[in-house]
Design brief:
The protein has 258 residues and is an alpha/beta fold. The chain is 34% helix and 17% strand. The protein has eight helices and nine strands. The longest helix is centred in the first third of the chain and has 16 residues, at 69-84. The protein is globular. The protein starts with a strand and ends in a 17-residue tail after the last helix.
């Protein structure tokens, strides 16, 4: 059921799977909806899953000008308004997680539950020197062929997109921790135990987003959704399908959230 939608000045490609409440999967930087091949079928057993690809990614052509979190957030809001027209659950990975979080901050009426997977809020949370940076030539060699398989711009355009993402990654994301208080959706914060961001950074998100839950997936890296898809799918589905349990000895959560 793949299609294009003209929204917000971007000809966005997306596919649809399953039936039920709308759920939007939001991929990371320089990849596309194929990244979720191990996750989409399980989610589509319970939800109407949409898999849009952002400007300059996958089947969606690049647009003149920079690619940054602000424009990707506005693109996503335009997509949600045009295609869904109401609240949807957002599940984002890496860059897609940060974009999903900003959508929840700017347009809470468009967001049901929010799953943020391996996406930090500030570069200061990087796990080590260079963890949040990349070499354009190296990334082009690694990801360029896959981009060329589906992009209407052709593989030769990939270095242009990679350079745009490199320029963004050099200075973003840069939110202050207190700004995360604007997220009002029930939120799952999920990281690997060996991610690009530190576990302390994940805990800071958990401490600041009021209605949040924290999951650390053992024995994985930033590619946790591909490395342990069954475990990740089970954790995301448990969060999306079930209400919070009544905890017995809560310490960190306010009584109203127990």
């Amino acid at each position: 059921m793949a299609d294009y939608i003209e929204a917000g000045g971007v000809r966005t490609w997306y596919d649809e799977h399953g039936q039920g409440e709308p759920l939007v999967l939001m991929h990371g930087g320089l990849v596309d909806a194929r990244f979720f091949e191990g996750n989409t079928p399980a989610l589509a057993e319970h939800f109407h899953v949409y898999t849009p690809e952002r400007r300059g990614h996958g089947h969606t052509p690049d647009v003149e000008g920079p690619i940054n979190y602000d424009v990707m957030t506005e693109d996503t809001i335009a997509f949600l308004d045009a295609v869904i027209g109401g609240p949807a659950h957002l599940v984002g990975h890496s860059d897609g997680a940060f974009v999903a979080m900003q959508v929840a901050m700017r347009r809470p009426n468009l967001v049901g539950r929010l799953a943020l997977i391996s996406g930090g809020f500030n570069k200061d949370g990087a796990a080590g020197e260079g963890a949040d940076e990349f070499d354009v030539d190296q990334v082009t060699e690694f990801l360029g062929p896959a981009y060329g398989e589906v992009s209407p711009d052709g593989e030769e355009h990939f270095p242009v997109v990679a350079q745009k993402i490199a320029e963004m990654a050099a200075k973003e994301p840069n939110l202050g921790q207190s700004e995360l208080e604007a997220v009002k959706s029930r939120t799952l914060i999920m990281f690997s135990d060996d991610d690009l961001m530190t576990i302390d950074h994940a805990v800071a998100m958990y401490d600041t987003i009021a209605d949040s839950e924290l999951a650390i997936v053992p024995g994985t890296s930033h590619f946790l959704l591909q490395e342990k898809p069954e475990l990740c799918n089970a954790m995301v589905l448990d969060f999306l399908l079930n209400d919070p349990v009544q905890t017995v000895a809560a310490i960190r959560r306010a009584p109203a959230q127990q």
